[in-house]
Amino acid sequence: MATSGAASAELVIGWCIFGLLLLAILAFCWIYVRKYQSRRESEVVSTITAIFSLAIALITSALLPVDIFLVSYMKNQNGTFKDWANANVSRQIEDTVLYGYYTLYSVILFCVFFWIPFVYFYYEEKDDDDTSKCTQIKTALKYTLGFVVICALLLLVGAFVPLNVPNNKNSTEWEKVKSLFEELGSSHGLAALSFSISSLTLIGMLAAITYTAYGMSALPLNLIKGTRSAAYERLENTEDIEEVEQHIQTIKSKSKDGRPLPARDKRALKQFEERLRTLKKRERHLEFIENSWWTKFCGALRPLKIVWGIFFILVALLFVISLLLSNLDKALHSAGIDSGFIIFGANLSNPLNMLLPLLQTVFPLDYILITIIIMYFIFTSMAGIRNIGIWFFWIRLYKIRRGRTRPQALLFLCMILLLIVLHTSYMIYSLAPQYVMYGSQNYLIETNITSDNHKGNSTLSVPKRCDADAPEDQCTVTRTYLFLHKFWFFSAAYYFGNWAFLGVFLIGLIVSCCKGKKSVIEGVDEDSDISDDEPSVYSA
Questions:
Q1: Does an H or E element contain 536, and which?
Q2: Residue 313, CA atoms < 13 Å, CB-side half-sphere
């Protein structure tokens, strides 16, 4: 009874943690969106859409630790199932998680292929003052229809794409895993939904390679290096103002006798006057920053920022080393490209794959670590997007700036983060494949032992960590894993994407090390839309 009561308490604690996590997600999304949206151009619908889509992405990522917790909770550490975990109960738990994924993934498809594009095109049309609301809605629906068609095609292709994969020497192991896919995919149209989500995850992988990999190096190094001194920047800016005023005076002196200026001098005068306006604007902002109490407070926190920067770079190196070892393991010991580089057991141990099983002994440390990893990926992705901006090939579309981000840019930002969070589940699988697949489950194996007292052999059941060799009725695979590996070609693309991720991180680390300190008012030179009554956005 005591054991049963402790198990029930553990389950209640798990669900309470998940409930608190949901509240924290909603609060975080609201604060983050409000922090970056423009004070002058904020729109209620775009704000709600951004908060909702970002929250859905984070809630979906929160299902991963819940999925792992539930499959682990059904078994004791000695490898036996708990008394209440019979076949029907286990199936109900698996179906509950599966329906949770169905619901959230369906909402994600709705957001990506209908609601976010509709709101984006609606506000694009709103920029034209002579356009009526009816015309705005019609135009937005017309452009959104293209996204709906793409979604329908993905669902259609996913429903009929062939899953048969030629077997190689690993046929016994591969057949076992493939049978799980076929069992899961034979009901409720999972193939169509899984194909659509995998397509979005593939786009998320490209976004993660671009933004997350760079952010993992840029965020800690920016914290360590800090920003330039406001007083020193004011001194430089004052010298620049004097130099520009001298150039303007020199050009104007040429027309003192009434002679008109040549066209080249007129163009130069106009450029110098524009430059002078920008420098005077910088002067006002720098003066505000230098005298701000927030600047003094941040200066007092400088040692703490350095400590956080060192911590983040160590965490980044831990992730990179774990990802490198995991990819090497797949390259050397996986079932090959035609199975999506599925690996049966961990042959090369990596730090995270060893750490998570150790933390499982103290509930709920492993789930807290998984949550921290997810949040770390999100924060580094945000840092990467802020540093790089939103581009379409070589064309810069939007910049993400605190307190000055336009509604359309905010929608782009949340869609990119949503796609990156979708890819986060596969990143965590790459870092700790056995943990994501089976959690902390053990199963019993029969071992022959020889007794000295009794001449002969006897068998002893000993627990062993679940892996691909375990009987299907002894270990329950997480629904997350089956979603990730239903289509082998997506898994193969993710594998090569991990190598690209490592390469971009290395390049980003070199670039971040070579770059100097950021200006305390980074962006004023480029932002012609900044009004003089908005200096406070730099002090935050």
A1: none
A2: 18
Cut 0.85: pTM above it: no
Question: Which pLDDT tens digit goes with each residue over 227-251?
Answer: 777 777 778 878 888 888 888 888 7
d(CA 460, CA 442): 15
CA distances from 262 to 139, 249, 399 (A): 48, 15, 38
For residue 289, give the amino acid letter: I
Q: How far apart, in whole angstroms, are the C-alpha atoms of residue 440 and residue 364?
A: 12
DSSP class per residue in 385-441: HHHH-EEETTEEEE---TTTB-HHHHHHHHHHHHHHHHHHHHHHHHHSHHHHHHTT-
List Cα–Cα distances, 151 to 157, 423, 482, 493, 494, in angstroms.
10, 18, 22, 20, 21
Q: How far apart are CA 73 and CA 8, in angstroms?
A: 10
Per DSSP bridges, beta strands 395-398 and 390-392 are antiparallel
Mention every residue, 6+ apart, whose C-beta is less than 8 A from residue 105: 60, 193, 196, 197
Going from N- to C-terminal start, the domains of the chain cover 32-164+172-230+292-514, 231-255+262-287
Helix segments in 1-43, DSSP class H: 2-36
Q: Is a pLDDT exceeding 60 seen at residue 6?
A: no
Provide the token pair at 513.
Answer: 């090390």
Q: Is 426 exposed, middle or buried (0-12, 13-18, 19+ CB in 10 A)?
A: buried
The answer to whether 491 and 484 are in contact (CB under 8 A) is yes
Tens of pLDDT along 482-501?
776 777 788 888 889 999 99
Angle between the N-to-C axes of helices 44-73 and 365-388, in degrees from 0 to 180, rounded to the nearest 10 = 150
Longest dimension (CA), the chain: 122
Q: Enter the tokens of residue 471.
A: 């009987």
Q: How many residues does the chain have?
A: 540
- Dihedrals phi, psi of 539, to nearest 5 degrees: -80, -10
Give residue 154's identity as a one-letter amino acid code: L
Mean pLDDT for all residues in the chain: 76
